Amino acid sequence: MLWSAVVLWHRRDPGRPPTLQEWDAASVCKCVKEVHIRCQIGNDIQELNKKLDTIIPVIQQLGLAAEDQSGIDSEVAPHYNESNTIGRGVGSDCNDLVNLLRRGGEGAHVLFAIVGTIGVGKSTLALKIYHEMRGRFRTRLWVNISNDSRRITIWSGDTFKRRAGMAEQREVLRRYLDGSTSNLLLVIDNVRKADDWNQLLAANEAFRRCGCKVIVTTRDENVERKMGVTHFHRVKCLNGDDGWLLLHKTANLGGTVATGNIQDVGRSIVQKCSGVPMAIRTIGWNLRGRSREDEWESIHSQDFISSYPGIRDTIDTTYMELKYRVKRCFLYCSLYPEQFVIKQQCATQQWIAEGFFEGSPDLEEAAESCYQELIERGLLLPEHEANGVVGAKMPTLLRSFALYRSGEENCVDNPSRISSTSKPWRLCITDEEAIEAIPVYVTRLRTLFVSASPLRRSSLDLIIERFPNLRVLDLRDTQVESIPKTLGRLLQLRYLNLSNTEIRKLPQSIGNLMMLQFLILQNCPYLTQMTSHVGRLENLRGLDFSGAPKLNDVRFRLLKLTELNCLHGFFPANHGWTLKELHVLRNLTSLQILRLGRASSIEDAHQSRLQEMDNLRELELCCSSVDQPPVDVQEHMKDVFSALRPPQSLFSLKLDGYYGNGFPAWFSVSHLTALQRLTLDGCVHCQRLPALGEMMNLKFLAIIGFSVLTEINYELRGAPATGVAFPLLEQLFLGRMQNMVSWSGLVDTDMPLLERLHLDGCPSMISVPSWLQHCTTLKSLKIHHADALQNIENLLALKELQVHHSSNLKRIFNLRRLEELEIVNCAHLDTVQDVPLLRLLHLDEPTAQLPEWLQKKQSFTLRRLEIIGSEDLLDRCSSPTARYGRLIKDAADHVYAKLHGGSLYFSYTKSTGMFDRSRRCRDRYGMQGAAILAVPVAPRRVHGGWETWIKYTLCAIFLIVSQFFVQWAVSSR
Predict the structure, then answer these.
(1) What would be the CATH architecture of the domain defined by 303-407?
(2) 386-417, pLDDT tens digit by residue?
(3) How far is CA 685 from CA 74, 668, 946, in A?
(4) Each residue's pLDDT tens digit, 519-566
(5) Where is the AAA+ ATPase domain (predicted)?
């Protein structure tokens, strides 16, 4: 048969003999070798089968049973692989933690935690640290806990020691710790419950005194908090660029340039994986051997949760640990669109309306606790802005899992696909036409999200008619203009959101919704009237109509709304509410008062009795806009604010547009003892700032719009009792300070915990405050629109620097720990010097030229360079022969060039020397279709005719004889 194959193969082209690339003598010998190896493997398998045949009767005789090993992880050994540490943050995070581990003496950290969501790379970071510290600690122990928390595996150094049950292994570790008279590094990987480990570590104080360190990895922040961790580090998901590198490497694309738009598809896959390395690797392995664009698109179109059990099961281990209520809240979050910022107040109100917390003594507190737990476990990722955390996003991968887990209950797809056997309870619609496509047998909806814009009156009528059992109706951003009277038929409705719509008023029938708990009317610019029937809704817990500038006719009173927990948009008026009506709302936790002005009564303000609202945690006081108030009006406003004295337990305070000629007397450290967040916005007539440095619990401070201030000095610091100003401050924001030139008055020990500083709109500031040089924890500095600023220098702890639209900035100097630098439209910047650790550089250039300083030889070695610019600029960088081609090849390990809209134009990888251009980039060069890849081709070898035929014939005969010999050897055995 083999001979026939040789002849047929040779005859496929009788005019050309086979080349050596197609079949040469070496390949023939290799085939013979493989035949021998396979024969030997077959014999070994037969021997094993014989042994098993003799063992099985013995097992049955002894009554032994197989043990379930599903809870034991397969990849738990501390074997370090540098290729797994893709990501700009891994090396930096490792260096920071290694430096802390090496630090000794009084006050040194002993117990560390690495926290992060599922599959994000916590163990990878711990492995890198474990490897880096092999010469620092005499004894290193790696302890891995199985996912079911039943077994522990221990390694000493890189050597496997033992695997056994939890109690037995803890006893082994106890002996290790008891006998540790020298330095020991203990890594406990995959900790899920803190209680057992607390007992072990607390009983071994000796190891804390002899230079021993403990690192734990966990998915839950509560674990590290209960264990008394002295320093914790949160691992972030990979960004798009790093995720693409990992996918490219795992898919084994090597040094080739992917054809078509594979990189675009790959980046979409990374986004669908939410930057989680575990998921990216799983998809990457499945992409091996697939190099066509249609193959990648086929993988991208799959549901990663249902198609890849490994990804699903990994997430499921965390999901199953959640309490029942937290599970319901997690699944509910899948209704929100992808990348939607889920605000805590919105989510918790909807969960309460759904009835998730019925029976709880404090509904809001229970709901907020679940929201925070989802963040602490990494199932929701907090979204930060200049004013702190504004909400959280559910990663795309986890959203897919939540939809999968919710089964028939939650539906976000085309409702026409709902089968007759399904019974969905919750539905999210993004297309108005989909409302009419909802099957008639879907009648039991409890929650309906409609984000279609616009929304016709007929569609709204259909919703009310079809779904009378709705509890949650969210119509925000729909541009609906009027609400029908039939709204009053939704007798079970508990949550109604009409924010960002064009409604003018609410129908009187809203008074029939006696079960309504939350009425949200944020940013309704045309809302002019509130019917008196709102005052009948005695179960209201949340009422918000902030952002309604035309609302002047408020006809309902607050007397019966004693259950109100949150009231935003309240304003006193001559023919409406008065401040004294607030005194009946003793359950308020959040209050916003708008339009305070000369008409506001001081007596009514006193009678509001805010100081007696013991539950009040958030207070916002906003004044009406006044250009040049006379002195008597300023005095009156100060008296009104003095009468609105909040309770001492206040957590967050915002003063907006305040035009009193001084701050009220209660605005002091002696009264606001628990204050943690403070925002002062637009206090234009205040000549000086109060002594905020004396507030011992303040963590966030924003000072905005103090246009009359030319400098901030020692008055802000005050005379703190401990001698340290702002001892707990972590975030500081200064904005719209047009005349501020400098900030002085702080000493070296002040702001010991400051991590982030944001300066926006300080055009007169000539230099960065000098006291920042002594802030050893300052990690991030953002400076926007600081036109007078010329130098940024000597910030020795800074790791991230962002400078936007600072036209006179000339020099960035002596930032010894700076790792990330972002420059946007700083035309006069000519020096970036003494930044030896710089690894990421982001440039947004409005011109068609790269900055001169980048073209000079630099002391830093970039891992990644990102360039945002026009096509003209990027064309000058996109090939080796282009104007900046040589600079691009030498600038960084990876270069990513994007247009101002955000789309990728080209990328470059130094290790392969390849430019990977987008279709748009290729089109500008006249290259249609796939990217051109130059592959070296060996010169064609000239073969003889009959001589070559005879050689291959002899090789075939040799193969046949070898095969007969192998068969004879097997049969003889």
Answers:
(1) Orthogonal Bundle (1.10)
(2) 677 789 999 999 999 999 999 889 999 788 88
(3) 66, 19, 103
(4) 999 999 999 999 999 999 999 999 999 999 999 999 999 999 999 999
(5) 108-238
